[in-house]
Amino acid sequence: MTKLNLTRRETIKKIGGGAAILGAAALGMPSILSAADGPIKLGFLSGLTGLETILGETQLNCFKLAVSEINGSNGIGGRQVEFIVEDDQTTTKGAINKARKLINGDGVDATIGLIASLTHVAARSVTTPAKKLLMYSTYYEGEVCERYFKSTGQIPNQQIVPSVEWLTANEGKSTYIIGSDYVWPRKSADTIKAAMEAKGGKVLGAEFFPFGTQDFGPALDRVKAAKPDFVWMMCAGNDLFTFLKQYKSFGLSQQLFSQGLDDVVSGADPELTVGALSNQAYFMNIDNPQNVAFKKAYGDMFGADKPINAIGEAAYDAVYLYKLAVEKAGTTETEAVIDALGTVEFDAPQGHVSFASNGVMRSNSILARANAAGAWETVENYGQIDPIVTGCSL
Questions:
Q1: pLDDT for residue 51 is more than 60
Q2: Taking 70 as the threshold, does the pLDDT of residue 351 lie above it?
Q3: Which of 82, 191, 247, 322 matches a 20 to 30 Å C-alpha distance to 227?
Q4: 3-state class of 346 per DSSP?
């Protein structure tokens, strides 16, 4: 566990773009907020060891960057932000235990982070009954409708549905799904099947493997035999790299698509992702002033060679949206902050964002292809898409 008080001396140097981000998003700060009330306390909970380490580190860095910028610009309504970092180890037990610690032991005002869907399900079993705010920054299977849960990552109608439309129009009408065996790939497969059938397509097979699988060979043999037009992959964390290596070694000619590929994955080994397609809310090649400032600030703080992904950018957005909501509400009281979250907007690195009435952020949807250098070149930019959670209005 790491507990940090970020002072002005520890913040990054101000840059013009960073100030522009704050200026574009700023709202009036009610006088009820006072520095004399002490720091605002946030919890960061995610997978920092185990399966999701490579993603958790970037997510934490983006969270730290947002806090550092905010503390360097008068904090939240004049109050500095203190944060506590906890590692859920990508396990349900870890997520439950650490969420309890953050709420009951540390008394955090809100918790931000998480990657694997199994961990947000576990953490919500603590945060929702406790009526404490949880902000989840990873694209996921959707379907959650809870007042105390906010998502800054994409859900299926923002990520899967547009991708299926392009793939069935450009690659063909059949696919084969291979994923890890947990809620995100399984629930996403249901959405993929429905979206494919709506376009006259078909899922020829869907297989799900336990974490730590070392041999995807038999499954890839079945893919070869089925002859799909494209392959849809949803393996998580380190298993993703294992699959990519074996997919390349099998010499399959089908287009590979995965909504789990991003700049962090491709940056780790560009040869494994070259030619692959992905849909994310954020890629580093987005060309706007906010993203230019964001990338420079991130590079200054963590190294110019460090890639950024959508999960990290969404954590950065979550911190700023929380800041704006607290300032709008004039308090850190959870009910008031949640009400205010539905009214604030932010000029994020991915573009202008805000929450819909179902508690999901209006995220971008960008279909991109990885090149030999590990960068992602835009194929289609669908812009912001309103999130759909059937029957949900909070």
A1: yes
A2: yes
A3: 191
A4: strand
Structure tokens at 198: 């709506």
Closest CA to 288 of 368, 383, 367: 383
CATH superfamily of 2-154+285-364: Response regulator (3.40.50.2300)
Strands 81-87 and 110-113: unpaired
Tens-place pLDDT, residues 116-146: 999 999 999 999 999 999 999 999 999 999 9
For the chain, residues classed under CATH 3.40.50.2300 are 2-154+285-364, 156-258
Q: Measuring CA to CA, which residue among 279, 281, 273 is closest to residue 310?
A: 281
Residue 181: C-alpha distances to residues 116, 187, 239, 247, 325 (Å): 11, 10, 11, 18, 36
Q: Which residues pair with 81 in a beta bridge?
A: 40
User: Alpha-carbon distance 137 to 273, whole Å?
Assistant: 23
Please give the Cα distance from 297 to 267 (Å, whole number): 19
One DSSP character per residue, 85-144 reads: EEE-TT-HHHHHHHHHIIIIIS--SEEEE--SHHHHHHHHHHHTTTT-EEEE-S------
For 36-67, b/e burial (b = at least 16 CB within 10 A) is eeebbbbbbbbbbebbbbbbbbbbbbbbbbbb
The Cα 187–Cα 114 span in angstroms is 18
Q: Regarding the domain with residue range 156-258, which homologous superfamily does it belong to in the CATH classification? A: Response regulator (3.40.50.2300)
**Pairing of β 133-136 and β 110-113:** parallel
Cβ-based neighbours of 29, under 8 Å, separated by 6 or more: 77, 78, 327
The answer, yes or no, to whether residue 364 has pLDDT greater than 60, is: yes
Of 159, 194, 188, 193, which is closest to residue 385 (Cα–Cα)?
159
